[in-house]
Amino acid sequence: MLGSFPPKPNPKIRAPLQSLGSDNAAISMTKMPTIAFFGATGGCMLAALSCALESGYYARALARTPEKLEDMLKKRGFSPALLDAKLVVVKGNAKDPEASKKAVVDGNGRMVDQIVFGIGGTPKFTPNPLKPTLDDPHVCEESIGSINTALRDIKSSSQADQMPLLTAISTTGISEKRDTPLIMSVLYHLLGAVPHADKKRLEEQVELAKTEGLIRDFVVVRPSLLIDGQTQGRKEVRVGWEGKTPGELGEGAAVGYTITREDVGHFVFDSVIAKNGADYAGKKVSITH
Q: Which of 129, 166, 178, 212 is the most buried (most CB within 10 A)?
């Protein structure tokens, strides 16, 4: 997290818009898409949300502590005026379908254009160092299930004229084919059983949402081991994907060790949100440095 001093300009990070004055007249005259973010205080989603706001999108975010998210965005250089104009933070828990519904439907009753899901658990060590767990072992499964419940209710009441694109952050190490270096595969097998089980159930719920017609399509993003640090640029991110049907490998997995949370967020925005999922709809996309 950045300190209390204003961030220094960085050519690898977009400069945030500071106001909605004449320089941004085109944005105010053209209705930009609205994106709902779940897990926006996490590194990947915070980066993706920042990119969206910098590019003029409207955003809605579900957060247990809205002030925390707003403070994090201000430390990134966003002005209160821009946040007031472009961002709605809904207070609530992602496991609550009613809170999820408020996050995906705007004040006019209109469904958001896209949903981006980046919730994850915090590692928790047990007396057996080889069997770590999570503070909430079912957080992904239950949170995405809450969103699906909200979408079912919206769909059944005919409140939405179209359903959104859903992008979900999962992980490497859960594909049927190896998508990590051998040593990482061993470590994941030993240490990642609980979080990986939760991510598998997340992906199952995402696919279920498509089957039930709750979303128009999905993109599952599977980053390698997440680390802190600045974005290294799109050219440093390698991409692979598995296809829409079992056994369709597409480009094959991108195999690597780590990727920064900033680069995951930038990829989600640049390659999925900004393109409305055109390149990767229905695919499970692995990304790494």
A: 166
Q: Which two tokens stand for residue 280?
A: 């990767």
Bridge-based pairing of strands 34-38 and 258-260 is unpaired
- The pTM assigned to this predicted structure is 0.86
- Phi, then psi, of 211 in degrees rounded to 5: -60, -40
Residues 255 and 180: beta-carbon distance below 8 Å? yes
Calculate the CA 93 to chain-centre distance.
16
- Residue 169, helix vs strand vs coil: strand
- Cα(73)–Cα(71) distance, rounded to whole angstroms? 5
How many Cβ atoms sit within 10 Å of the Cβ of residue 72? Answer: 18
Say how far apart CA 232 and CA 37 lie, in whole Å: 23
Query: SS3 for 265?
Result: helix
Tens-level pLDDT at each residue, the chain (289 residues): 333 333 333 434 444 433 333 333 333 335 799 999 999 999 999 999 999 999 999 999 999 999 999 999 999 999 999 999 999 999 999 999 999 999 999 878 899 999 999 999 887 777 877 677 778 899 999 999 999 999 999 998 866 678 999 999 999 999 888 888 988 888 887 788 999 999 999 999 999 999 999 999 999 999 999 999 999 998 899 999 987 655 555 667 889 999 999 999 999 999 999 999 999 999 999 999 9
